[in-house]
Structure formats: C-alpha cells, structure tokens
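TICKET: design request
STATUS: open
ATTACHED STRUCTURE:
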C-alpha cells in the first residue's frame, strides 16, 4: 500500500514537470519564427518610407532618355551623360532620411547601416565617374585644360569625406559638387560656349576599361570575394550594400551611354549589354531579410558570394563590350 501511494504521489509531480518541459520546448520552437515575422513586418513598413530595392530606372533618367536621342548634338549628349552620373547621388541626398552616414549617434537614422553603406558606394562611384568624365571627355586632348566647374567639383567637393556632420557638412559639399556639374551642363548647352564634350570611339573603350579597372569595380569585388574567415559577420551586409550603391550609379550611366550611342550595340555588344544590365538589376534589387554567410557546403545561403557572382558577370560583360568596340 505504501508503494502504491508513493507512486500516485509521484505522478502529479512528473505531469507538472512534463508540462513545463513542453512549454519551454514550444517557446524555443516558436520564438524564432515569431521574431523573424515581427522583424519582417517592421522592415516592410520601413521600406514603404525608404525604398531598399530599385528594380526600375529612376524617373529622372527615364525622362532624360526620352529628351535626348542618338541624333542629339554632342553637347546635349554630354549634358545628359553628366546628369546621369550625378543622378544617384542626388537621389540619395533627397531621399526620405537624406544623407545618413554622418548623422549623430543620437539619431535613429545613424543605425540604418544598409542605407549608409549604399550611400558610401554611391559617392565612391560618383567620384570615379566624374574623375574620368572631367579628365577624358570634357576636353579635346589630354594636355588641354579641364573645365573649371568639373575640376572644382571633383577635387574639392566630391572628394570630401562622407561622414562629416558640420563645419562643413558632407551634404553641403556634395550639393555644391552637384551644382557645379549642373553649371557645366548649362554652359555646355549655351551657344559659343567654351565648355567641351568630346567622346570618341577610343574614349568609349577607355571608359568601359576604366569601369572594370583595379581602382573601380575591382575594389568592391575584392570586398565580396574575401574569405569568410577574414570577414566579421557584422561586415557582410556592409559590403553587399556598398556594392549596390556603386552599381546604382553605373546603371544610370551605362543605360544613358548605350541609349545615346547605339553603335555600341551594333558592334556586337547587344547580348553583353543585355546580360550586364540584367545582372545590374539583380544587384539593385538585392535586399535579403537577413544576410547569411553560408560557407563551403553549408545549407545556408552565401549572400556575399551571390553578389560577387553578379559583379563578376557584370565585369566580364563590360570587358567583352569594350573589346567589341575596340575591334
């Protein structure tokens, strides 16, 4: 009898323990889906205010391509290409939260690191494209003097650090640089102007070669292909969105260049252009909910590796396009 009462007394205790065990197990099972669901909801609400995917050309570029045709004058083409190069930086400046890289640490926008790194890529690519434009396309020969508006924009304003908050701020410097490009564009379109735009076949080739050079596209590519063991987990998304910012600038410029100079496609580059632009669109819409770093035969995605494959394809297609122009 004593044994039977002892067994009965143990049953409720075991049942209570089992209930707690089940509750704890359910909590572990549900906490991740609920957390991810909450994060997804918050993130989607944020993207309604501040877009993180850019599947289409900016309306400014679309309007530009309608206004300027292959039959336009060289001056009109030069103004359009200059506008395309500055467009993405201007859009970042005018976006919902503006230029957020240099926001104070007390500001919530300071912690939006994906957009901050996209903006870092944007100013990097803008600098590079303006430098090439000013030193190669805005004068008749290498020994000629650069346009005063362009040289001031590239050496003084676009070269300014991206994270300065005040005295002067990064925004004020980039706005001055954009204004100087607009001054050049206006001067270019005036009659009897001394402003120059001179794009020859060899310049087309050189511009494409410059884009895929070590100082330009090879720079973000190196950040994407570096071994996972050498990259902190917190930097994975930084490198992805930095690359996206670069490609957003290049897409505007390349789309405009191809539109204004259809002979580039006629020389055998049509398929290369199609694939390059397709992969650029993939980069411009790349926005995983959580950036993963799957390594070797891991079952998780390697998002940095995916971005690297897009960039390698873009680079190879632009290289083929450059060779087709040269031949």
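STATUS: resolved
RESOLUTION: sequence designed for all positions
ATTACHED SEQUENCE:
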């Amino acid at each position: 009898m004593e044994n039977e009462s002892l067994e009965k007394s143990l049953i409720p205790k075991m049942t209570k323990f089992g209930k707690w065990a089940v509750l704890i197990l359910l909590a572990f099972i549900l906490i991740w889906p609920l957390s991810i669901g909450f994060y997804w909801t918050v993130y989607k609400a944020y993207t309604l205010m501040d877009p993180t995917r850019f599947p289409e050309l900016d309306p400014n570029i679309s309007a530009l391509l309608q206004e300027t045709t292959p039959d336009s004058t060289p001056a009109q083409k030069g103004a359009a290409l200059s506008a395309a190069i500055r467009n993405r930086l201007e859009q970042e400046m005018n976006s919902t939260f503006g230029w957020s890289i240099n926001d104070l640490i007390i500001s919530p926008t300071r912690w939006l690191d994906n957009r901050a790194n996209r903006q870092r890529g944007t100013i990097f690519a803008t600098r590079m494209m303006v430098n090439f434009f000013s030193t190669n396309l805005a004068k008749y020969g290498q020994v000629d003097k650069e346009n005063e508006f362009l040289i001031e924009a590239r050496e003084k304003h676009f070269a300014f650090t991206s994270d300065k908050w005040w005295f002067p701020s990064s925004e004020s410097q980039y706005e001055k640089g954009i204004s100087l490009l607009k001054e050049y564009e206006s001067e270019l379109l005036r009659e009897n102007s001394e402003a120059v735009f001179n794009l020859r076949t060899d310049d087309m080739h050189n511009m494409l070669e410059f884009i895929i050079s070590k100082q330009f596209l090879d720079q973000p590519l190196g950040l994407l292909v570096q071994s996972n063991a050498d990259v902190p987990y917190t930097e994975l998304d930084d490198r992805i969105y930095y690359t996206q910012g670069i490609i957003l600038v290049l897409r505007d410029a390349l789309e405009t260049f191809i539109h204004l100079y259809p002979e580039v496609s006629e020389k055998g580059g049509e398929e290369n252009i199609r694939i390059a632009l397709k992969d650029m669109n993939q980069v411009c819409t790349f926005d995983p909910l959580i950036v993963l770093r799957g390594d070797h035969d891991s079952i998780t995605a390697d998002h940095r590796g995916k971005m690297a494959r897009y960039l390698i394809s873009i680079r190879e297609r632009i290289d083929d396009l450059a060779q087709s122009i040269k031949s």
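CLOSING REMARK: The CA atoms of residues 157 and 176 lie 7 Å apart. The radius of gyration is 26 Å.
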